[in-house]
Write a structure and sequence with these properties.
The complex is a heterodimer of chains A (267) and B (471). Chain A is α/β, with parallel strands linked by helices and 267 residues long. In chain A, 37% of the residues lie in helices and 16% in strands. Chain A has a single domain, classed as Rossmann fold. In chain A, helix 6 crosses helix 8 (224-241). Chain B has a 4-stranded parallel sheet with strand order 7-6-5-12, with helices on one face. Chain B has a 4-stranded parallel sheet with strand order 8-9-10-11. In chain B, strands 1-2 form a two-stranded antiparallel ribbon. In chain B, strand 10 (323-327), helix 18 (339-356) and strand 11 form a beta-alpha-beta unit. Chain B is globular, with a radius of gyration of 22 Å. Chain B starts with a strand and ends with a helix. The chains are: A alpha/beta (267), B alpha/beta (471). Chains A and B meet through helix 1 of A and helix 2, helix 11, strand 14 and helix 20 of B. Chain A: It is an enzyme of class 4 (lyase). Chain A: GO terms for molecular function: cobalamin binding; ethanolamine ammonia-lyase activity.
Chain lengths: 267, 471
């Protein structure tokens, strides 16, 4: 009978360092290459991130779930007609298509005098998975904590959306504050991370410097409770000081509220 | 000036050198987004045929951005070396390609004429080249720099060890650094992208890397990739700063978007030199660039993205960097859509940098919304290694958990060294052999649990409590 073989590969003797980081360290080597198990693990993570980008958001199902929770909803679509045009033309994702624009124009929000009109947009962004998993529980948490005198407009569910699409939506619905919940660019470790971007007095042409961002909302990141708390704190401060963006962040004193930084590596 | 070209009955017209260069560029999404790309395949080739007949001297007369309006243009023109240029001044762009390819044009000659080549000339000739030309000519160039080790010698491939962590946890970063060192990476630089803007957090990271470098006597250098003004402040506080980092671009307006100008870079370089921390050389700058950065800052002035990128290398060249890194696939599919565009851009950038005399490395990378995967990374890094790329990134498992993108790994560097027969920087190689990570044949060896790098892990790294852990 054959003796059990010695394993082909040996483990790197620094496994204990793995507890300090989620980086892919101490993977071992097959010659100089990745062991099969590590190769497949990486490939699976990439596949999940790809699916997060390319699987379409089921917006009607989401709308129905939200209606069941007592939200009114409105579906809109950006000028990007499909995923490819969305990826190639960021400018399309920042504008409503004609039909959606007309639909929002037809809504005449009635705002009691003195009330704050808060509009929340839910956009697929680069991860429909993030929206599918986190949008509903996060919205419920936000709704629970909205000040009484504030008016929450319809939740606008936007397909093929980029962050700045919320400016046009907010402007059409005469929002004092618009907040967009949007799927982040998926990483290998977090294909379902969601961000919130908040803009005071939104209008077409607002820049990234006019927004505040709460990022990394996912099961291993920021909780719904904390995210909702931060959102409402920022919204109240924005109303009080009549501004949002860099100036608000500087004196905000809340940790983890990052300004928008899409090209952090290219500082 | 209007450029005209006829092919049979078809007449093509190009409105200026800028338009001609853009239309001659191989197709890529960023040039389409900017609205400057050729509209048909034939128009693209017509532009190339027309460009091939343009004399190199034309690039000194017809400036893409007016001299008065852009300090990068002024830098390019004011530092142009007429003596060096005299050797190629009689050539057209088409002749220039032939001249670069002939065997008599060797590294000595290329080095001699480098200061006579403007970025626009380099970008132009690339547009007439196939990928194999980009590789062959780059392979001939030699750009050697030094700080604590010597980078860019023939037959060597260096690695930037990139040990990022989403909360800048010093233990997490130290763990990734040790992982990289034990795989033989880190001779180009140990370079950290911090997630925080806090000077205190950065100070801790400088001390961490400095301590590792000193404790194990490693001939390499550190860098924290934060804004240059932060680094100047830390230098003023006598924090151990080796290399000064900055992202740069090819127009004054795009640089302004990064919060810099040339005088600030001068100031930063002087500050770094004042610390006098190099041992075998004093190239103290580390730059990062990438096609698309000018357009994304609305600062491309109708210039195609490859030409904008080449102009960034003119900025780099002026400050004698140790390393310059084109972060080729980071910015997204609206600039480089798929593997084909990525590979082309990586090879173009590498050649343009090398022709200008810049020590060009490449972060062969992609984000998950691009049509690119690790197979494309394999192809580009192998081609770049064939072209003699100065350095690549070493990220644990190719997965950067802070920047959320995929790059190349320590394993990838080992693969390239094995397949292409490449060594590491000589001083670093001596160190790897001294600490038994590399054997006499130049192979990476398995290490024992008792290895000094594992046994000597500074105690505070293992006991230090982060705010996260306390919670």
């Amino acid at each position: 009978m054959r003796k059990p073989d010695k394993p082909i590969l040996s483990r790197d003797p620094w496994q204990q360092l793995k507890r300090f980081t989620r980086a892919r360290i101490a993977l071992g080597r097959a010659g100089s290459s990745l062991p099969t198990r590590e190769l497949l693990d990486f490939t699976l993570s990439h596949a999940m991130a790809r699916d997060a980008v390319h699987l379409a958001l089921n917006e009607t199902a989401l709308a129905q779930e939200l209606e069941e929770q007592g939200f009114s909803t409105q579906l809109v679509h950006s000028k990007a007609f499909d995923r490819m045009s969305y990826l190639l033309r960021p400018d399309y994702g920042r504008q409503l298509n004609e039909q959606s624009r007309r639909q929002l124009q037809a809504i005449k929000p009635v705002i009691p005098s003195g009330a704050v009109n808060l509009v929340i947009v839910v956009g697929d962004g680069l991860s429909s998975l993030a929206i599918e998993r986190h949008a509903k529980p996060l919205l419920i948490e936000i709704k629970k904590n909205i000040p009484e005198q504030w008016k929450l407009g319809p939740v606008v569910i936007a397909s093929q959306a980029r962050v700045a699409l919320a400016d046009e939506i907010g402007e059409l619905l005469a929002a004092d504050i618009v907040a967009i919940l949007i799927g982040e660019r998926p990483g290998l470790r977090s294909p379902d991370s969601l961000s919130i971007y908040i803009t005071y007095a939104p209008r077409v042409g607002c820049s990234d410097a006019d927004r505040n961002c709460i990022s990394n909302i996912c099961s291993e990141g920021l909780s719904y409770v904390t995210a909702a708390k931060k959102l409402l704190w920022l919204a109240k401060e924005a109303i009080r000081r009549k501004l949002s963006g860099v100036a608000l962040k500087d004196e905000g004193g809340l940790q983890e509220i990052a300004v928008i930084d899409q090209h952090r590596k290219l500082l | 000036m209007v450029y005209r070209f006829s092919i049979g009955a078809f007449r093509y017209q190009f409105n200026g050198l800028k338009d001609l260069l853009a239309k001659a560029s191989p197709a890529r999404s960023g040039d389409c987004l900017a609205g400057v790309a050729a509209e048909t395949y034939a128009e693209r080739v017509a532009a190339r045929m027309c460009l091939a007949e343009v004399p190199l001297t034309r690039f000194l007369e017809e400036l893409l951005i007016p001299y008065e309006e852009d300090e990068v243009t002024r830098l390019i023109i004011d530092t142009h070396d007429k003596q060096a240029f005299s050797e190629i001044s009689h050539l057209t762009v088409g002749d220039f390609r032939d001249w670069l390819l002939i065997d008599s044009t060797d590294f000595v000659i290329l080095k001699r004429v480098a200061a006579g080549i403007t970025p626009e000339m380099a970008a132009a000739v690339c547009k007439l080249m196939r990928n194999q030309d980009l590789i062959l000519v780059a392979k001939k160039c030699q750009v050697i720099t030094a700080f604590r080790d010597t980078i860019g010698l023939p037959g060597r491939l260096s690695v930037r060890l990139q040990p990022n962590h989403p909360t800048d946890d010093v233990r997490g970063i130290a763990a990734s650094i040790l992982d990289g060192l034990l795989y033989g990476s880190g001779d180009a630089v140990i370079g950290i992208n911090p997630s925080s803007d806090s000077l205190l957090a950065m100070r801790d990271l400088y001390y961490l890397v400095d301590e590792i470098i000193q404790r194990y006597d490693i001939p390499t250098q550190s860098c924290i990739l934060t804004h240059v003004t932060n680094q100047i402040q830390l230098i003023e506080k006598n924090i151990p700063v080796d290399l000064v980092f900055q992202s740069i671009a090819g127009t004054e307006k795009a640089n302004k978007h990064f919060g810099i100008d040339l005088s600030l870079l001068h100031e930063a370089r002087s500050a770094a030199l004042s610390l006098n921390r190099g041992t075998v050389g004093n190239n103290v700058m580390y730059f990062e660039t990438g096609q698309g950065s000018a357009l994304s800052a609305d600062a491309n002035f109708g210039i195609d993205q490859q030409t904008c990128e080449a102009r960034a290398y003119a900025v780099a060249r002026h400050f004698s960097p140790l390393l310059t890194n084109t972060v080729v696939g980071f910015i997204g599919p609206e600039y480089l859509y798929d593997g084909k565009q990525l590979i082309r851009a990586g090879l173009e950038d590498h050649l343009c940098g090398k022709l200008l005399g810049v020590p060009l490395g490449c972060d062969v990378c992609y984000t998950n919304h691009a049509e690119i995967d690790q197979d494309d990374v394999d192809t580009l890094m192998t081609l770049l290694a064939a072209a003699g790329v100065t350095f690549i990134m070493g990220v644990p498992g190719a997965d950067d958990i802070m920047l959320n993108y995929q790059s190349t790994s320590f394993h990838d560097a080992l693969y390239l060294r094995k397949v292409m027969g490449l060594g590491v920087a000589p001083e670093f190689e001596q160190w790897l052999k001294r600490v038994n990570i590399m054997n006499d044949q130049g192979e990476i060896q398995p290490v024992e649990p008792a290895h000094p790098l594992l046994q000597g892990i500074p105690e505070h790294l293992l006991t230090f409590k982060t705010p996260n852990e306390k919670a």
